[in-house]
Specification:
- The complex is a heterodimer.
- The two termini of chain A are about 15 Å apart.
- Chain A is globular, with a radius of gyration of 21 Å.
- In chain A, helix 3 links the parallel strand 5 and strand 6.
- In chain A, helix 5 packs parallel to helix 8.
- By secondary structure, chain A is of the alpha/beta class.
- Chain A has 13 helices and 13 strands.
- Chain B folds into two domains: about 70 residues; about 180 residues, 3-Layer(aba) Sandwich (Rossmann fold), CATH 3.40.50.
- In chain B, about 50% of the residues lie in helices and about 15% in strands.
- Chain B has a seven-stranded mixed beta sheet with strand order 3-2-1-4-5-7-6, with helices on both faces.
- Classes of the chains: A alpha/beta, B alpha/beta.
- At the A-B interface, helix 6, helix 7, strand 13, helix 11 and helix 12 of A face helix 1, helix 2 and helix 3 of B.
Chain lengths: ~350, ~325
Amino acid sequence: MTRVDQLLPRLAGRDAVGAHTLAVQDALRATGIESDVFAAEWDADVAGRVRTFDEYSDYSDADDAWLMYHASVGSHVGGWFAERTVRKLVDYHNVTPHEFFDAWAPEISGLLVSGRHQLEDLAPLARAGLADSHFNELDMRTAGFAPTAVVPIMVDVRRSVGVVDEQLLDGLGATKRGADWVFVGRVAPNKAQHELIKAFALYRHSFDPGARLWVVGGESSALYRAALDRFVTDLDLANAVVLTGSVSDAELGAYYEAADMFVCVSRHEGFCVPVLEAMAHSVPVVALASTAVPETVGDAAALVPENAPLHEVAAAVWRVASDAPTRRALIEAGHRRVEHFSVERSSQVLLDAISTILGRNA
Amino acid sequence: MPDADAASLMADIEREVRERRRAGQIDDEYERELDRIFDAVAPPGAVGSGLGAALMRAERAAVIDPVGPVASRIPGVALLRRALRKLMAFYVEHVVRQVTAFGVMVVRAMRLLGERVDAVEARSPVTDPRLVNLALPVASDFDVAPWFDLVVKTLAPVSGRVLHAECGNGALLVALHDAGIDAYGIDPRPDAAAFADERRVEVRNAAVIDHLRAVPAGALGGMVVSGCAERLATGDIVELVDRAARVLAPGAPLVVLSRDPKGDLDPIAADLAPGRPLHPPTWAFLLARRGFELIETRTSDKRAPASYAVAGVRAGS
């Protein structure tokens, strides 16, 4: 029986790559393809669905065995994967250009540089490459992968709809004075939360002095986080901007429920799951048309040109906040976009891609 | 929301921003102030670039602390870690001393290399920081007013944003706006921002090539180049044309306005700028080589100094 096992450095059920890996396993198993997940580390809540990668050697000599590696930052697991003789697939989830991190977190820059080299090293060894987006696919082709196919990242963004920390939601509602912005994503230089805070300050200055901004997500760089804290203090916005750090699903639900719009000025995204998550929570999205963001949001967001001044982001948010028909249209378009990227649909795209690859290599 | 609606929503928002700017409701000085406040809290090297700042950080990172943290919330673990640290100290410190020495010597070598690069740079007017930092004032730009009619006529039919680099005092941007053309400018000189605020036009403080690097391919409906056209070094001009060809949409016009080197040149620019104005056929050659079509040259010596316009259209219309 054909088996397509998966390998990744760390399996975390709550992160996008982890959720995608488990969804891929479900989709493969549902069609009768054997599939186990192997990793070097994992979170306790997924311990029952993963095995240590040392155990993989059981299958590596089988004729009908494939191993799919989930590539992002550099890892010793990628090196181990390269040395296996089994037929290889690479599912690429993007490597952020290291320049974003050089000044803020050189230790992360090193992982990013190594991730990029690892991708190039794997290209001649893999029979095919899968990418979350056309943007990522271009990266893979540049690295030398062929053939390639786009399989959107499979994350059930609707899973947390309705899961809400009511106490937090009540607190946010009781203190509301204007439009509430939310952005969800790791606090990292490529996500450009500092630009988001600038756009927000311009918005308060020009349109809505009672507006608030919630920056939700754990930090990738302590130095960047500290700079954001100081920036907020120096702008005298400590009462309006909250950097929440990591939050539970219920807290995240409360922020989405309370927010008037999701604003993303990220400068580098390989897919950007949170924009879909916001759409699933009926929060209209205003985003900068950067990297993979335009193909993820499609026509369901107010998409500000990447080189536009931040005033335009503020103006777009004001339009969405103040114009009910525009707001309604974006929310409805967002629901359609979420459907477009549903796990069911993307599973079919995955299975078609896998079937083509297996057929080609039969 | 179908595609057309999303596009018309953004076109509407862009129009609104332009109207607000013309009405003096956009506070560009506040945005620049925001940039300055963040730059002040960012670490060396995060904003802009600087070999000195990067070396300083490398130097700090080169000194490795062999004493690892031992604290733990789990009972007994801190004690165990402390014991391990003590047992391993002789070995770890031995390795750390060698790695630190290596790191410090690499940084020292980089500093020496940096000094030699500085010396080389100082011998070229294109890279000499003493000249690079000596921004020529906007007032020294040649008057592009005689070319307004031609530029407006060339750009009137375009769709998409038009860039004027370098826009100097913003007079051409005002003429373009008055003709209903969606134009913005860039200029790296600090005094250009004050002119822009006064004239209520959108101007970004950036150098032309840096800006073009950040503009997505095919994003511009048209482009006017002046000022920098006669100051940039020759290699930079070649890159400017290459990048313009990338960022202009198919069919989009590029207009170059420049002093004619055969006429009287501005003495300050002629003495201090790294480049000199090109002759009109040179621009026409560069545009043709990069695939521009319908290239036309007009010269004007009605007003001193003599100047010319070279216009071409990005192939693929």
